[in-house]
Every structure is written in C-alpha cells, then in structure tokens.
Specification:
Helices cover 68% and strands 0% of the residues. By secondary structure, it is mainly alpha-helical. It contains ten helices and no strands.
C-alpha cells in the first residue's frame, strides 16, 4: 500500500474513533492528526476539512454493501433483506451518532437517481426494491427510485429521533418496514363483484 493511502486510512480510522468518542463538533483536525500519529499539515494535505473526512467515512460504510448484494444474487426474500439492511444501518447509526446525523441530514437534497459514481445506501435500497418488483412483493406501478427515497426519508427521520434520545428498537425498525412495505407492496387486484 502506498504511503499516502496508508496515511489516509490512519486519518480515517483516527477520525472515526474521535467522532464516536468526542462527537463531530468537538473533534478538531489537530485531534485527528494526534490520534493518527501524523502532523496536522499532513492531514490537511490529504483532506481539506473534517467534513471531507466524515463524508469519506460515510462513503466507506456505504461501499460495504457487498454482503447484501450477494444475498440479492441468491434471490433472498426482499422483505427479510430490507429488514436486515435497516437493522444493520440502525446499529451503525447508534454506534456512530455524529456521522449518522451527517449521513441522515445531508446538506444537499437527494436526487431521485442514486449517485452513479459510487456505492450508496440509496442505490442499495433501490436495487433491493427492484428485486422485490421482480419477486412480485413490491408494487410495479411505481418508480423504485422514488419508493427508495420515501423509505429512506421515513427511516432517516426515525433514526434522527432515536439519536435525539427517542425510543428505537429492533421491533420499531421491523414495524417501520412493515408499515412502509404495506404501502409500496404489490397490491392485490380488486375483487370483482
């Protein structure tokens, strides 16, 4: 591994630890540099700000969707897969509240189409919904991009509430998914009388 890449990883690891312990607002670039065993100048040469570092940490988590994609390839039950994805995400959010707040309340309005240049939670959820349409458990009469934004918006608000000290358990996540899926789930044809 190149020295630069090794330094970037040291910085990201140190920042993740500092954000968890001190919170995003209370973590300085100096703190990150000290924890990484590097100079502040080196940190600034590799990252322009702690916001950039935080966004890289979030992108690092989003890129870890391989395990879910393997399960999608195996054509697993979409509802169980969505539940697992959101339970895992909630666990990460609760363990990394500073980063979760940044990820859940982005400064830019999300677009209907997930970013094409990188892995994203939005793309993963959208792709699971597409699989659900193929399996016949997610409605086919609506755009999976739109449905994923709706699902992520509701989930994001629920997680922000949990991060503010509100109750949020695994049962709450399952309940949330059930309610939303009933809204985007495949509709039974109306019975003719």
């Amino acid at each position: 591994m190149k020295r630069t890449e090794r330094s970037r990883n040291l910085i990201l690891d140190a920042a993740g630890e500092a954000f968890r312990e001190l919170g995003f607002a209370n973590t300085s670039m100096e703190e990150i540099a000290t924890r990484a065993g590097l100079t502040r100048k080196t940190v600034y040469n590799l990252f322009s700000s702690k916001e950039e570092i935080a966004l890289r940490l979030i992108a690092r988590v989003e890129a870890g969707d391989v395990i879910y994609r393997v399960r999608m390839e195996a054509n697993e039950d979409v509802l169980e897969l969505l539940e697992r994805v959101f339970l895992d995400s909630a666990g990460w959010c609760l363990a990394n509240p500073s980063l979760a707040r940044l990820a859940l309340a982005p400064t830019e309005r999300p677009s209907l189409e997930p970013p094409s240049d990188r892995a994203s939670f939005q793309r993963l959820v959208r792709d699971i919904l597409v699989l659900g349409q193929q399996q016949g458990v997610i409605r086919k009469d609506d755009d999976p991009n739109f449905m994923s934004l709706v699902l992520l918006g509701i989930y994001g608000q629920a997680m922000l509430t949990a991060l503010s000290g509100g109750p949020f358990s695994e049962d709450d996540i399952r309940h949330l998914i059930r309610i939303v899926i009933e809204g985007i789930g495949e509709q039974s044809p109306p019975s003719s009388k």
